[in-house]
């Protein structure tokens, strides 16, 4: 019983840490994302709201961000563990695992993004109104509009970021002869994310 509980601990840790990290990042960067969405809106920046109500649409992020991040890390860790027994190169296993994680997470992330953008651009008064209008006009399939494009954007980024993050942690662990701390892991993640962003600017 104890052994079984211990075996599942990493997955619960992945769920909790992934959910918290995803929610924190999305809420922190939400105003910048709102400005970007309004700048890209066909209605124009000012008509879409300008710099007012920068947190319009935040409920959809609060509801969807934590589950999608948690799903990603659970799928990523489970896939990585399985693939590591079949693929000798850890970075290749991590690249495939991150792609699987992104695909699963997008089933929650894409509807969240659709509702968020509709509210940010003032196409709807609030998230509830955005959902009602979308279902009336497009049906449930409207929630997944842009699913393929989102995958094409997210998978290359993660396929670079996560193997690089894992490799940086391995190098650091080898250098100091002990596992990386949470802050060292975060530093590795920041470096990996910056490099991935630099390599995928067109996406």
TrEMBL record:
Which SUPFAM superfamilies does this one have?
Answer: Mitochondrial carrier
User: What's one GO-annotated cellular component?
Assistant: membrane
Key words, A-Z: Membrane, Repeat, Transmembrane, Transmembrane helix, Transport
What is the recorded membrane topology of this protein?
Answer: Multi-pass membrane protein
Membrane-traversing stretches: 12-32, 53-76
Say if the entry is tagged with keyword Transport: yes
Locations listed in the record: Membrane
**What are the ranges of the Solcar repeats?**
9-82, 89-171
Similarity remark: Belongs to the mitochondrial carrier (TC 2.A.29) family.
Q: What is this protein called?
A: S-adenosylmethionine mitochondrial carrier protein
**Which species does the entry assign this protein to?**
Soboliphyme baturini
